[in-house]
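Question:
Now give any protein.
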Amino acid sequence: DFLAPEVVAAAEARFTENAEIGWVKVGGYAAASRARFVFTHPELLESTLGEDGSLLDEEQYAVVLRVAAANDKAGNRFGAGGKQLPGLLAGIGAEFSQLGDILLEGSGGVVGAQQDASKDSVAFVVCAPPVRSAIERLLPKSLGGVRSSVGALAFEPGGSRSLEGALVEMHIGRVDKREYK
């Protein structure tokens, strides 16, 4: 499972103190805040890492998807600051434990205070490989399907991927107001 940023920081501090554990943090890109840990025997750790210290087979643990959606008259399909993305992903069955960081690229089609309908909104979603196909298949339908696409970024063995964008908070904006008795 992908862990919350505060848990990742605490785990890194604890694992660094213990030389009997071989571990690597995997988050899909170099500066990931939500991450998974891969554990191995300390003597085997060197053979699993590239020159820069990243995992050679990282795509087995984290996949980065590029999600593009055309803006419409109502505006950015991801919502202001990408706030609708976690809800859209939850709506298609992607559990938060299977999702890493979500980054909204650039201004998301917003130029100044004006929405620019000619620009697509682009986000990067880091996920566990088992949910990749569901996101690739179902998210474009949730976004309206007209001019939306989801595709995995190519993995470069031994290379640290660098992504830039605004980090989207992982919470669902809806509140269930029903009373249970």
Confidence is low (pLDDT under 50) at residues 108-115.
